[in-house]
Design brief:
about 40% helix, Rossmann fold, 2 domains, about 15% strand, about 280 residues, Helicase, Ruva Protein, domain 3, 9 strands, elongated, two-stranded antiparallel sheet, alpha/beta
């Protein structure tokens, strides 16, 4: 920790709250995160949020290639020092949110995302890979602990929601470790957790991705209302139509959206799509 602080001080770096900068420097933990991601000499790793380069260096020690995106250009001299000798790591000083993911995937081929994500961009970045990532094999990301629980929740629990269902549609999700706030500089107000999402295992097919997203959105539109009422409100169905559709997929009358598993939500979306209710 003192080494990092001295490097940052030497280069006149100051933390910027708008970028959600909380740097992790525990070497053993960083190596464990890389191991959680399954990174080896054949892996191309994509990192979002280079920070001071501690995770980048840990990735470079194991991976074939590391591409890391960093929005804060004032870190350039810091990273020139901390990543010295990491010839297989490249830092791109640009906002990943504005990056052309299709073009990047053509360049990288298959890749694994490994990142200590700034809290304020966690869900948008995650959903970008879920919805657009064609060659992404896995995500191993550090997020707020409560957000990690939502990502990996099961139906019928308070943490279960639309993002849970979206992740489950693409693959399997699990928390690999929790990380106390004391290991970050500066120290955040919450503890964190590492989540591993494997796009090569689990998941299920649906007839139409857009139909699945719209069905999930409708299911969680209002958690206090029944799924029947949410379908009526979103898709302008009659009550009898809504009852019939839910009966066809085996949903009990009066059920709420959060009680349906991701697979059951997929079956519901397939039926809504097949009937032309969602086009």
């Amino acid at each position: 920790m003192d080494d990092l602080r001295s490097v940052l001080l030497r280069h006149g770096f100051s933390f910027k709250k708008q970028f959600g900068q909380n740097f992790l420097t525990d070497t053993n933990l960083l190596k464990a995160i890389v191991a959680d991601a399954g990174v080896d000499e054949n892996t191309t790793a994509l990192e979002i949020g280079t920070g001071a380069g501690a995770l980048t260096r840990a990735l470079a020690e194991r991976a074939k290639r590391v591409i890391s995106f960093e929005i804060d250009r004032t870190l350039q001299p810091v990273l020139a020092e901390t990543l010295s000798g990491c010839d297989n790591a490249e830092v791109r000083f640009q906002d990943f949110a504005k990056c052309d993911l299709t073009a990047l995937e053509r360049e990288l081929g298959e890749y694994a995302v490994v990142a200590n994500l700034p809290y304020y961009v966690t869900t948008p970045i995650l959903m970008r890979f879920v919805e657009e990532g064609k060659k992404c094999r896995s995500l191993t990301i550090m997020v707020q602990e409560e957000v990690a629980r939502r990502f990996c929740a099961v139906e019928g629990t308070e943490d279960y929601g639309a993002v849970t269902a979206a992740l489950a549609r693409r693959g399997s999700c699990r928390i690999t470790r929790t990380v106390p706030r004391t290991l970050f500089t500066p120290r955040p107000n919450v503890d964190s957790a590492v989540v591993h999402v494997d796009f090569t295992a689990g998941g299920f097919e649906v007839l139409n991705e857009k139909a699945f997203r719209e069905t999930v959105r409708a299911a969680f539109l209002s958690r206090r209302k029944t799924l029947e009422n949410n379908l009526i409100a979103v898709f302008r169905l009659s009550r009898e139509e809504a009852k019939q559709i839910l009966a066809e997929v085996g949903v009990q009358e009066g059920a709420r959206g959060e009680t349906l598993s991701p697979v059951r939500l997929g079956a519901l979306s397939d039926l809504l799509f097949a009937k032309g209710i969602i086009k």
